[in-house]
Every structure is written in C-alpha cells, then in structure tokens.
Specification:
Elements: E1 9-12, H1 16-27, E2 35-38, H2 46-49, E3 54-56, E4 70-73, H3 80-83, E5 95-98, H4 105-112, E6 118-122, E7 132-138, H5 144-154, E8 158-162, H6 169-177, H7 179-196, H8 201-221, H9 226-233, H10 239-247, H11 253-272
Parallel strand pairs: 1-2, 1-4, 2-3, 4-5, 5-6, 7-8
Antiparallel strand pairs: 6-7
Helix pairs in contact: 6-11, 7-8
C-alpha cells in the first residue's frame, strides 16, 4: 500500500497529529509542492517550508482555482462547527477525511453534503514516532480506490485498519485512541512503586520503560495467545504469581480495565451524539 505521490492534499490544522501525518507523507517521498497546510500558528512548521509545502493562515488565502484530492481536517472537535462549512467549496471534487474524535460522518454530511466521499479516522499518539495505529470508516460514497488511497495516507504514521461499521469507532477510541494513556499510567505506577521499594528514580524509570517496550515488542512478534505469554512469565509459587494474585483478583486490573474501557466507550458515544 503506497501513497500516490501526485495526490494534492489540503491539511487543515497542523498540531501534533497533523504534523505527524505531514512528516510521514514527506518521509514517503510525497512531493511537498502537492501539500497545502492551513495553520495560523506556524512556529513549528519552518522545516516543512524548506520541503516545498505551502502554508496558509486561512482558506481565503488559497486561490479559487485550487482543487485538492483530499481535504483532511486535523483541528480540535470544538471548532469543527466553525471550520468545516467553509470547505463546502470543494464538495463533489475532493474526498474529506477527519481525524477528530466525537464528530460523526453524519456531522460532515450535514455540513458538506451527503453526496461527498467522507471518511472518519481515529489515530493514536504513537503516530508521532510512526508507531501508531489508525482505524477508519467511510460513508457509502467511499469506493474501493478512495478507501485504499485514504489508508495509504494514514499508513504513513503506522498501522491502519478499515471498519465497515462506524458504530465500532467508539470501541476503537476507548482501546487504541485512549489506550496510550492507560500504558503511561501503568508506567507511572511502576516507577512510583520502584522508588517506594528503594530504587532511585532513574533506575526505576529505566526498568519500567524497557520492560514495557520489550514486552510490547515480544507481544507484537509472537504468534502465541496473549495468555500463554503471561503464563510463560509466571512460575508456580514465584514472585509473578504473587503479584498477579492481586492484579487478577476481584478488584484487580482486569475488572478495572474493563470498567475503564466501558466508561470511555460511553463517553465516546456521548460526544458523537
């Protein structure tokens, strides 16, 4: 799955996720001259101008003859109502992609027209180091070639998956979208416990980071069931079994994580409504 290097892209918003995508496209040899970015705050974008990317303060600064293949909304959900309607000038000409949480395909159809190809995507923060995973879905106007082109663009920052049911985006948001925060909380907790046990901060941090990163790499590279990997670390009567008796207890990690994800799904649904 490769990016079509001649595609014309209009990126609206270039915060952390927008910059990650832009960097990914350029790293895959997409022509910078085919990319336009609308971002009033340009303090972190100087490097991209040297690669031929055109930067604008607003849509008004772009000539009326300009017609992008993809219009990608990477602004905060709170300002979508104000931002999106201006881009109706590209209706029937461009594919619209949103990476904003809480804004449904129906929202964009109402603002831009139901006859447009509209794609909703949910990336996560490891996209910043091109190790993310993004899940996308689209309306009935998204034909296979458009779907594949969209996935290629999103694959510049990591793995990609396609959903045929938009309702599942809430579960995706709760697991992969919010998931990095769960891992970071686990890391925080492990570091704190290490310090309480007598380790200095740097040692506790190093042990935690390398353990989580290494375990993730082992998990990704293994064909074993996840429970088998856990059991392989757990010797009968050993230290791991003692720890897991707490984590897998009645009020342990399994119940808490399940409850947390359900809560996140509920919140995602509320944002969508």
């Amino acid at each position: 799955m490769g990016i079509k290097k001649t595609s014309k892209i209009l990126l609206i918003g270039c915060g952390k996720m927008g910059c990650a995508l832009l960097s990914g496209w350029l790293d895959q040899s997409m022509e910078g001259s085919n990319i336009c970015v609308i971002e009033p705050q340009k303090s972190n974008l100087a490097t991209f101008t040297g690669q031929g990317v055109s930067l604008y303060d607003s849509l008004d600064d772009i000539g009326l003859q300009y017609e992008p293949d993809f219009v990608i909304f990477a602004v905060k959900p709170q300002i979508m109502d104000k931002v999106v309607p201006s881009y109706k000038r590209f209706a029937g000409k461009s594919t619209f992609i949103s990476i904003a949480a809480g804004k449904t395909i129906n929202f964009f159809e109402q603002k831009l027209g139901k006859h447009n190809a509209i794609i909703r995507a949910m990336p996560n923060t490891p996209a910043a180091i091109k190790r993310g995973i993004t899940v996308a879905c689209g309306n009935s106007k998204v034909e296979k070639p458009i779907q594949l082109a969209c996935l290629a663009l999103l694959a510049s920052v990591g793995e990609v998956r396609w959903l045929n049911d938009e309702k599942l985006i809430d579960a995706v948001t709760a697991i992969s979208g919010s998931g990095p925060a769960y891992v970071f909380l686990l890391a925080e907790t492990m570091v704190k416990a290490g310090i309480e046990a007598g380790l200095n901060h740097q040692t506790a941090r190093d042990l935690t980071i390398h353990t989580i990163a290494g375990s993730g790499a082992l998990l990704k590279g293994s064909s074993e069931h996840i429970s088998i990997l856990r059991e392989n670390v757990t010797s009968p009567g050993g230290t791991t079994e003692a720890a897991l008796s707490v984590l897998m207890g009645e009020r342990g990690m399994q119940k808490l994580i399940s409850k947390a994800i359900k809560k996140a799904i509920e919140r995602s649904k509320a944002l969508d409504s």
